[in-house]
Amino acid sequence: MGVNRVHKTASTDRFVRLSSGKCGVGHVDSHKHVRSSVGLFDVGHMVQHFFRGAGATSFLEWLTPSSLEALPAHSSTLSVLLLPTGGILDDTVITKHNPDEYYVVTNAGRREEDLSWFAAKLKEWNDSHSDKVEHEILEDWGLVALQGPKAADYLQGFVDSNGGSNYDLKKLTFGKSAYLSIAGVQAHVARGGYTGEDGFE
Fold it and tell me: Which residues of 37-57 are buried (b: 16+ CB within 10 A; e: fewer)?
């Protein structure tokens, strides 16, 4: 893995096990750089999903406490997957593309438990509802996070021309997403992140 090699040559203090791989931790200079400028994180270990179909909104509302029907298109919300007893199975980010399609990200550390739970709940839903739901796990998708106060300025330089003019990332406010061409690659770009700074995934 290319990113792994970079970690090993940098001043990373140690590696810890994360999902099916290892993650470099303790790199103080990297932390400070993200706080003052911009940094790129490989978060491809996270599990990415599409839920599609006429019942997609109702199905995800059945599994979470989120009011997805009221969520505007191309908007995201932090949510949780609820157990029937009211406990929490995992946290998640849900992005609504339209009422029949949602992009969902769940944690790598609970991959097997979450996928097994989704499979059981999908079967239960589709066996008892006419508004069916399809589930696609995006195994071949990469996922990177560009984080830091200069993230927008940096990423803007890689946004390709669309119809003669570049997409202005100022229009992509926190919690919003869009499909954009980034350096010639079609990408799903969402404004948000987990560092406390501005950023995109």
Answer: ebbbbbbeebbbbbbbbebbb
- Cα–Cα nearest to 83, from 123, 37, 120, 53: 120
pLDDT at position 63: 97
Specify whether the CB–CB gap between 130 and 120 falls below 8 A: no
Handedness of CA 83, 85, 91, 96 (dihedral sign): positive
Cα dist. 122→53, 65, 71 in Å? 12, 17, 22
**Residues in CB range of 137: below 8 A, 6 or more apart:** 47, 48, 49, 115
3-state secondary structure of 29: helix
Token pair listed for 107: 């944690």
Please choose, from the candidates 51, 50, 42, the residue with its C-alpha nearest in 3D space to the C-alpha of residue 21. Answer: 42
- Reported as a single tens digit per residue, the pLDDT across 15-41 is 666 556 666 666 677 778 888 899 888
Angle at 140 between CA 201 and CA 83, to 5 degrees: 70
**pTM for this prediction:** 0.85
The pLDDT assigned to 1 comes to 45
